[in-house]
Every structure is written in structure tokens, then in C-alpha cells.
Amino acid sequence: MGVLKGVSAFVCVAAFLVAKIDSRPAANELPHIIFIVADDLGWADVEWRDPMMHTPTLNHMALNGVILNSSYVQPLCSPSRSAFMSGYFPFHTGLQHLVILPAQKVGLPANLTTLPDELKKRGYATHAVGKWHLGFCNWKYTPTFRGFDSFMGYYNAAEDYYTHVVGKGLDFRKNKDVDREDSGIYSTYLYTERTKSIVSAHNKSQPLFLYLPFQSVHEPLEVPSWYEDMYCKNTKNGTRKTKCGMVAILDEAIGNITQTLEAEGYMDNALVIFTTDNGGPVWAAGYNYPLRGAKSTMWEGGTRGTGFVYSKNLLTNRAGTVYDGMMHAVDWLPTIMSLVGGDTPPGIDGVSQWDSILTGAPSPRTQFVYNMDSLPLFHAAIRDGDWKLIQGSPGGYNGWYPIPGDDDAADDGTLMNEAVNQADIDMYQLYNIKDDPTEHNDVKDKFPDVLATMKARMEQWRQGMVPANFPPFSSGSNPANYDGVYSPGWCDV
């Protein structure tokens, strides 16, 4: 009798599990996902924070979607992109120090399951258009070996927008093939047309994932001059005017892509995710007012990312709201998996934010690590609730920005550079981000008990840190070895 009861119980459990699996959306019901990453876009590099900028498309989606007011990224490019793709903090994958450089034998660890890997299991077509920056010394690190059906773009950190050359090498691909034909065409135009062609050719019965990590608005500061003349007439600062034009062409590209998605019938069942990869670089006219610091620092200005989610039909009860819940770049993978009924790789650092974004409930995240690195000396920053602890140097730009539209700014941008100078750094700094989001008041002496608790928490996180994978340069990467092109095939790690 006991055995029969056991069998019966087993059958009931099995039936429940099958029903649960069957309850997941069918492939033709799954939402299309457009994941847009703007490179080096600062907190105030958008029109809803600086009216001098021209971002009508982004404004429409942000103000009719859900603005992410506490969405954190890493201080630099490769670490953030690794977090988007893997759901792991970079200090757990060895990618926490600076960025992947062209001559380094390193990439996003090949044993990690990526976001597109998981989406393909749910039946998605997956396409990447733009900047990769997660390694290319071996083909296994490149996009079409990391879950993407197709790739157009470049492998490295930055290149000329027209020639697609970085240093002495061409860096531009269509899938695995070198693209020499598009030299002379501004990259944002190319990425727009490529994305539109993918959308137009796609089988509408299959869910679509577009990963669009634009080159814009990373330096070099280059843009067709008419964007500056048309949209940035009132910006007197020369470098800021060029940055304004670069933001305008990015906004236009996103507008053209979403119009194509609308015309092809995708937007009724689509989620648009928009985020920067780090704060704005003060040395290249990036703007993070009123936050402190810049790209490459652990201050809020380097890590609190401009972002939003938008959907015509998936967020109807939340349209036009702000989500203040704490979230981090590592959360995007599990958040998307929650939306599509997919599996989240076990052990990752990310947590799903979907229910909280959808309902406005408190964030499931209460802690995160801004970064943690031991090169050349240990420096880190962590968050626990409203409290932020910095140990060691937060980076080289530690001041505050002038008010947007300050006409006293010199044409070469020197005022912004002078406004953000290296400060004398104490070993520990403690801030209450809720009360002091601009980090003016180090309160470690006022709250010694909080400091002690946060130092203990820092040490707990430090126990899980893996050494930074930042190898010496290899001559094997020289484009001269590959007919003037940056190419995989010179490492076996």
C-alpha cells in the first residue's frame, strides 16, 4: 500500500511538472527582445535630464515606459558587457581590471552560459550588431560562438567611426568574414541598416532577440556635421556640441529601427531594454550631472547607468513610471529569463527584477559590488541597502560637474576637466546614497558601527574574488599578421 501511495504521489508530482512546463509561453507567444547598449552615455547625456540634448525617440520610450533610476553598471566597457552576457559580477570571472585590450589573450570565460545561449533554448533567433569587446584571440570568444546566429560589428573597444580602423588594423566583421566594403560609412548608419534588414527578413513566427551594442557615443568624437548644426545649435562648448550630435544620431538610429519593428508588426509584443555600459567620460564631453565622478570610477557618476524599459503592451500598468529599485547589470539575464519562461544558469550573481519592474514592488536586490580589484593595489566599492563603502581609490575623476548649459564652459571642454580632479583619498569612505546621492558627505566618523559592519561585508565579498585575468600583450595579435585585420586565431586559452 505504501509503495502504491508512493507511486501515486510520484505520478501527481510528474503531472504537475509537465503542466508547469506546458504552461510556459509557446514560441509564437514569446515577446521579442531588443537589448540596446549605448557606449559611454552619461547620466545627463539624454534630453530628459539635459534639455540641450536631442533624444526624442529615447524620451518617448523612457517617459512612456519605466525609467530605471537605480540601475548600476560597471565603471568600464568589457566588465559591463560580461555582466550583461553572463549574469556574473566581473570580480567573479576575472574581468574586473580595466578592459580587454587588443593584444591580450583573454575573453569572457568560455565555460559560462550566455544570455543568447539561454534564449536559443527557448527558440529565439539571436543577432548581435555593434561592439563586442569580450575577447577575440580565439574564435570561441567571438559572438557567433557565444550564442548569436549572426554578428556585424567589431571586436575591440574603440575605432574610427568611418574607416573602422583601430591603431593600424581594420576591425569590422560580418559574421566571421572581414568587411572591407563598408569603409567610409559612419558605423551608426551601417548598424541601423543591418538591423532593419534582419527584422525584415525574419520569420515572424519565431521570437527575436536583437542585441544592439552601438559604437555611439564612445570616443573618438566624430559625427556628420549636420547633426551638430541641426540639433545642437545652442551648445557652445565645442566637444559637448559634437557629443550632442553623436547622441542625436544614436537617437535617430533607434527611431529608425523601432519604426521598422513597428511596420513589420513586432512592437505589439516586444520589450525594449535601453542601458549605458558605464558613466560618461569627462575627458570626452560625457556628462553625469549632478552625480559625482566619471567613467572608470566607482563613484555614482561612473556606475549609475542611464536606462529604461519600454513596451507597448507588456508594461501597460507601469507606463510613465520610475523604478527606484536597486538593480545591477548582472540582473538582466535572469530578468529576461523570467519574462520568457526560461532557465537561469545556477550560481550566477544576478536576480530577476521582472516582477518588481512589472508591479513596482521592492527590488529583490539589497546588495551589490561596484567593483573589486587588486591591481595594482586592492580597491573596491560595495553597496548594502542605502550604504556605500569605498576602500582605496575610487578612480581618477573625483569631482562634480557644472550645471548643464553652463555657457562659461570653454570650447575645448576644459571647464569640465578642471571640475573633476583627483582628490586625496582616505582608505575608507562611507556614504548614505539615499540621503546623499551626489556623495558630498563622507560619514564614516559619524557612523562607526555602520563602518564596521560594511568593512566586514567587504571582507566577505573579497573572499570570493578571483584574480584579475589581465595578461601581458602578445605580438600574435598584430594585424600585420592577418593582412591588416584584427583576427582570431593567435591564442589557445
From TrEMBL:
The protein's required cofactors: Ca(2+)
Annotated ranges, domain Sulfatase N-terminal: 31-341
Keywords on record: Calcium, Glycoprotein, Hydrolase, Metal-binding, Signal
Keyword Metal-binding: yes
Signal peptide: 1-23
UniProt xrefs under InterPro entries: Alkaline_phosphatase_core_sf, ARSB, Sulfatase_CS, Sulfatase_N
Pfam families: Sulfatase
Any one GO molecular-function label of the UniProt entry: sulfuric ester hydrolase activity
Entry annotated with the keyword Manganese: no
Assigned protein family: Belongs to the sulfatase family.
Record-given protein name: Sulfatase N-terminal domain-containing protein
Organism for this UniProt entry: Littorina saxatilis
Lineage: Eukaryota, Metazoa, Spiralia, Lophotrochozoa, Mollusca
